[in-house]
Write a structure and sequence with these properties.
Helix content is about 0%, strand content about 45%. It contains no helices and 11 strands. The strands form 2 sheets. Strands 2, 4, 5, 6, 9, 10 and 11 form a 7-stranded mixed β-sheet that branches. The chain has a 4-stranded antiparallel β-sheet with strand order 1-3-8-7, with no helix packed on it.
């Protein structure tokens, strides 16, 4: 069974930084677009960022542009989300996801576009 495992979450003060990692269990994921989503209590899961299969294209939701950076290392089957200048409103459970379309360059920002999900990692930003 394909697996995605997130790590790197935690508690940080506003203005601080965290780097999330998402490790994939299969090399197949190096051919898939990957995304990060988040879900705050009482809210729907929302799109944060996506990166195409080879890292050549990225896309962010407006609220994180200029603060978050998505990247990938296909040799390590790992995707990262560098989060800087964190705000209290960034508090959520963060999930990584994989879109099982071979070498797709299409931007995928809906949770319905993704086939595999990790278990999530909690990010809490205190004021």
């Amino acid at each position: 069974q394909a697996q995605l495992v997130e790590s790197g979450g935690g508690l940080v003060q506003a203005g601080g930084s965290l780097r999330l990692s998402c490790a994939a269990s299969r090399r197949t994921f190096s051919n898939y677009a990957m995304g990060w989503f988040r879900q705050a209590p009482g809210k729907e899961r929302e799109f944060v960022a996506t990166i195409n299969w080879n890292g050549g294209s990225t896309y962010y939701t407006d609220s994180v542009k200029g603060r978050f950076t998505i990247s990938r290392d296909n040799a390590k089957n790992t995707v990262y989300l560098q989060m800087n200048s964190l705000k209290t409103e960034d508090t959520a459970v963060y999930y990584c996801a994989a879109q099982a379309i071979f070498m797709s360059d299409a931007v995928a920002s809906s949770p319905n576009d993704y086939n595999y999900w990790g278990q999530g990692t909690q990010v809490t930003v205190s004021s």
